[in-house]
């Protein structure tokens, strides 16, 4: 969730995907960034698979932004953010959908 400077999808002035989607972090993400364990909501047996632990980063499902989104719309754990956030493509379909929802 990071766009190149000056392009149409500049993440530094946005944060829509961090407000619109239910983001889950995996155990491997929390090993890299311990604040995920401290501030996320632990969900055991994520997707019904025993032993598969995940952390929900939304305090209230679909009602609140990710706990790591700061008031200035930047990510508080950007360098150690979850893999799901690393894979998110600025300008991709989900990005454009988040920005559309955010305008409503
Ligand atoms: S919605 Fe798109 S432009 Fe906005 S922060 Fe997310 S990836 Fe970046
Ligand atoms: S961890 Fe950072 S990049 Fe990922 S959803 Fe939360 S604020 Fe956005």
Give an account of the 3D structure.
The protein is an alpha+beta fold. It has one domain. It contains five helices and three strands. The protein has a three-stranded antiparallel β-sheet with strand order 1-3-2. The longest helix has 11 residues. It is globular. The chain starts with 15 loop residues before the first helix and ends with a helix. The model has no long low-confidence stretch (mean pLDDT 87). The structure holds iron/sulfur cluster (2 copies). The site of one iron/sulfur cluster has 13 residues, from helix 1 and helix 5.
Secondary-structure map:
Layout: H1 16-20, E1 24-26, H2 27-32, H3 35-39, E2 41-43, E3 54-56, H4 83-87, H5 93-103
Antiparallel strand pairs: 1-3, 2-3
- Domains (count): 1
The span between the termini is 21 Å
Which band does the percent of strand residues land in? 5-15%
Order of strands, main sheet, comes to 1-3-2
What order do the helices and strands follow? HEHHEEHH
Number of continuous helical runs: 5
Number of strands: 3
* Overall shape: globular
Instruction: Using the CA coordinates, give the radius of gyration.
Output: 14 Å
SS class: alpha+beta
Q: Give the ligands present.
A: iron/sulfur cluster
Helix content: 25-40%
The residue ranges in which pLDDT falls below 50 over 5 or more consecutive positions are none
């Amino acid at each position: 969730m990071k766009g190149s400077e000056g392009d149409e999808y500049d993440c530094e002035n946005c944060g829509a995907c961090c407000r619109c989607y239910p983001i889950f972090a995996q155990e491997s993400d929390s090993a890299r960034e311990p604040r995920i364990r401290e501030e996320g909501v632990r969900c055991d047996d994520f997707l019904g698979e025993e032993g598969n632990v995940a952390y929900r980063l939304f305090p209230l499902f679909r009602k609140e932004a990710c706990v790591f989104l700061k008031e200035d719309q930047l990510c508080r754990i950007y360098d150690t953010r979850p893999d799901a956030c690393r894979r998110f493509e600025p300008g991709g379909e989900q990005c454009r959908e988040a920005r559309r929802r955010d305008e409503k």
